[in-house]
Design goal:
- The structure is a single chain.
- It contains nine helices and four strands; from the N terminus they run βαβββαααααααα.
- By secondary structure, the chain is an alpha+beta fold.
- The chain has two domains: 2-80 and 190-197, 3-Layer(aba) Sandwich (Glutaredoxin); 89-188, Glutathione S-transferase Yfyf (Class Pi), Chain A, domain 2, CATH 1.20.1050.10.
- The protein has a four-stranded mixed sheet with strand order 2-1-3-4, with helices on one face.
- The longest helix has 22 residues, at 119-140.
- It starts with a strand and ends in a 5-residue tail after the last helix.
- This is Glutathione transferase GstA.
Length: 202
């Protein structure tokens, strides 16, 4: 399998899952600025939408969208228990968390990375994200991970997007349960390996 990624972007989530599962893979870096691969290939020929992640299977089929990719990967290594079995209530709850992180948190960071955003737009985005993360913090007060007592692919997605708080000046220091959760995730060997490969750790 090939994972098309950009360092520190949301593609870090499936990268971590690949490390957690132990499945064989290769990384292909795709610039989010030039939309080219290191060999000069136009990334739009890989993903017409121009963004990462993209997972390419050995037979050439490609899977887009992080929440779909991480579930696919988890299902390739069921013994790792990174996603509940398909058809169970717990699996649907996991999909709910992936959807929440994607639509309520991930996408809300967009204005903070856009240099054209006004100060007012950025302030509104920070307020919105803070409110959503405060709710997540209250949920994590009740259990160690989003979906229960065991780590899941949703946890890695939340970890990745909350990594963006510091670069954009979003203060989450007061969210004690969220930060304890982030520490638990950050200390996992697979997470450290993926971040090191992307040049995010010294």
């Amino acid at each position: 399998m090939k994972l098309y990624f950009s360092p520190g972007a949301c593609s870090l989530s499936p990268h971590i899952v690949l490390e957690e599962t132990g499945l064989p893979y290769t990384l292909v870096k795709a610039s989010t600025k030039t939309h080219q691969l290191d060999d000069g290939t136009d990334f739009y020929t890989i993903n017409p939408l121009g963004y990462v992640p993209v997972l390419e299977l050995a037979d050439g089929r490609r899977l887009f969208e992080g929440p779909a990719i991480v579930q696919y990967l988890a299902d390739q290594a069921p013994e790792k228990h990174l996603a509940p079995a398909n058809g169970t209530f717990e699996r649907y709850r996991l999909q709910g968390w992936l959807n929440f992180v994607g639509t309520e948190v991930h996408k809300s960071f967009g204005p903070l990375f856009n240099p054209k955003s006004s100060d007012e737009v950025k302030a509104n985005a920070k307020a919105y994200i803070s409110k959503r993360l405060a709710w997540v913090d209250s949920e994590l007060a009740q259990r160690p991970y989003l979906n229960g007592d065991a780590v899941s692919v949703a946890d890695f997605y939340l970890f990745v997007v909350t990594n963006w708080a510091k670069p954009v000046g979003l203060d989450i220091a007061g969210l004690t349960h969220l930060n304890a959760f982030r520490d638990r995730i950050a200390n996992r060997p697979a997470v450290q390996a993926a971040m090191r490969q992307e040049g995010l750790l010294g």
